[in-house]
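TL;DR need structure tokens for one chain.
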Amino acid sequence: MKKKLKLLVVDDEPSIGLFLEHYFSKDYDVVVKLNGFEAIAWLQQGNITDGIVADYEMPLMNGLDFVKQLRASNLYKDIPLVMLSGIDQTSNKIMCLKSGADDYMVKPFNPEELDIRIKNMLKRVNI
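>> reply
TL;DR here they are.
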């Protein structure tokens, strides 16, 4: 049996975390963290993930600061990341993409579309 890939979901809204965990649990081992600070701490404990879905607006460390810190690290800079946001502004999308997000989706989103985007990103990095 093929080993499941690991997906890190970073979102302060418990309902989104539970929804994504439920939706993706068939194909991935899903880990949910409530903000960027928790996610970085989890990674620094030696945990590994194949992909990340992160919310833009979170307490303690928002998604933009999270992706900037992630990309500044030699260990985590290549992990594929999709940013989710309730903000549908081109300037926001550009800022996130320039900071290192691989993709940007606006809430509410179609989970099937998110799944396809994640799978496409993982294919590009040969996972």
